[in-house]
Amino acid sequence: MWISNGGVADLAIIFAQTDKSKGHKGLAAFLVDTKTPGFSTQDIHGKMGLRASNTAQLFLDEVRVPHENLLGSVGEGFKIAMSALDNGRYSVAAGCVGICQACIDACVRYAKERHQFGKPIGSFQLVQDLIARMVVDTEAARFLVWRAGYLKNKGIRSTRETSIAKYFATEAAVRIANDAIQIHGGYGYSNEFPVERYFRDARVGTLYEGTSQIQKLIIGYHTLGIRAFD
Fold this sequence. Notes:
Number of helices: 5
Low-confidence stretches: none
Number of strands: 8
Strand content: 5-15%
CATH topology of the largest domain: Butyryl-CoA Dehydrogenase, subunit A, domain 3
Shape: globular
């Protein structure tokens, strides 16, 4: 379920359990041609946001994969999956910084153009309060993403820093997009302005590549050294 580009990809990385008695140490990763007999997909429609992104379910019915399609070794599947998640979480965090900035840009334009009581609404204290908080959250999210990216470029493990960036940036994007709608008033609730789409696209950021709750557990583990789950 919920596989990005699942309906259009030529290749898929499939994780399979080779020995249930070994738990996650029995996982293996395979490179699978989506044209292989028994492999099929079904697009998922009706999403709240990210409508331009293909999302699909994958179905495997007696799919046979040659040994040379094994990625790494049997038992390394979990390690490969976690590495992919780190990269995915980083890209989600970076994308949410973009949503945050887009919301600020849209609100600044609107607050200067929209007039009430003979003056632009950007001159109202409460509107400036909302925009100021948006700017602070965006700058904080941006620097957290930059820090995680710096560590990645240096080849330094950055699971903790990536989870911090992902958690903060995605939650900030939802808050900021919601406030952007508030600044636009009734227009923000329509597709006449882009902020309603920013909100719809931001909302999934707290869900995929590990929910916000999972990110907090990862941060907690790296801080305390105690796992909240086995």
